Amino acid sequence: MRQDGVGIDLETSLGYLLKETASALRSALEDVLRPLGMNVTHYACLELLAQRPGLSSSELARGAFVTRQTMHVLLQALERAGQVTRPAEAPTGRSLPVELTPDGRRLLEQASAAVRGVEVRMLSGLTTAEQAAASAALRAMVRSLRDGA
Amino acid sequence: MRQDGVGIDLETSLGYLLKETASALRSALEDVLRPLGMNVTHYACLELLAQRPGLSSSELARGAFVTRQTMHVLLQALERAGQVTRPAEAPTGRSLPVELTPDGRRLLEQASAAVRGVEVRMLSGLTTAEQAAASAALRAMVRSLRDGA
DNA sequence: TGCCTCATGTCAGCATTCTGACATACGCTG
DNA sequence: CAGCGTATGTCAGAATGCTGACATGAGGCA
């Protein structure tokens, strides 16, 4: 408990709790993805491509919450590893549509199963209604945070 | 929507939403802390010290969700900047109790006000009951994630 | 048409954080 | 008492992600 009324009580702060939860989730994901030679950003990139093939590097960056420069170097590595492909030149504008290769898709299937396991474990103590309420609350928070900026 | 049943639908995944919210919060915090010359970890360190003076470097690291090596270099910088102090040798064991200086406390007051503003904005669209529900859900998720590891 | 703004891809350099390693100090247990 | 496991502080090197910058292409508008 704080004596003064100025600071933020970390024990009850939703922001702090959010950071704690995200940190725990990240750790758990890294634990299950490491055996596959992947990290969280790598997995997010592949999962995004499975759902929306043809996304550009910049769009993938926004979806994985990193800068486009970071995604650029990741895509170079994934291209070398044969998990994704990009055309030599842009069909229109400057954006190069990225797609999964069969190898990338196979790797993603293993990763998805592992990630799904973590998510199931994370939600194991919550009812469906509680999950829906949490989801709605998080969406409202994102909206408020974005509006202000 | 996914065709196959193996992957994770990012539009509805609570894990993805959690990452998105944490990312938005982090961005918003960095925006208000940058004018003060601070980052999120720096702020978290000072806030922890205000609430629990005498915490060791390793304990601060756990509280700020970074490694103790990272906290170590941060504390060196903060010590040079005159925001925290540490005794030359440990009173017992190896752990050195860290404390805020008056300068550090003054800086923290400004940062706390800024951070509080962001948190208020983040929660502006939620009722008190909804906040409590979200808090309980996040706590349950942390517990489940930690248990499995 | 020419210009202005914006988004993208890409390169280079820097900052931050992590992993690995080692020595030291405490507490427990045989 | 001796040994073991654990936690801490610290150093060094490596990985990761970011900021800054530049050129290029698309679209809107005078």
Protein topology:
The structure is a homodimer of 149-residue chains.
Chain A: H1 14-33, H2 40-51, H3 57-64, H4 68-80, E1 84-85, E2 99-100, H5 102-122, H6 128-148
Antiparallel strand pairs in A: 1-2
Chain A binds a DNA duplex (30 and 30 nucleotides) through helix 4.
Distance between the termini of chain A: 31 Å
Count every helix of chain A, treating DSSP H or I runs of 4 or more residues as helices.
6
Cα gyration radius of chain A (Å) = 19 Å
Strand order of the largest sheet of chain A: 1-2
CATH architecture term of chain A: Orthogonal Bundle
Low-confidence stretches of chain A: 1-5
Domain count of chain A: 1
Work out the helicity level of chain A. Answer: 55-70%
Shape category of chain A: globular
**Which whole number gives the mean pLDDT of chain A?**
92
Biggest sheet details of chain A: 2 strands, antiparallel
> Which homologous superfamily in CATH is the superfamily of chain A?
Winged helix-like DNA-binding domain superfamily/Winged helix DNA-binding domain
CATH topology of chain A: Arc Repressor Mutant, subunit A
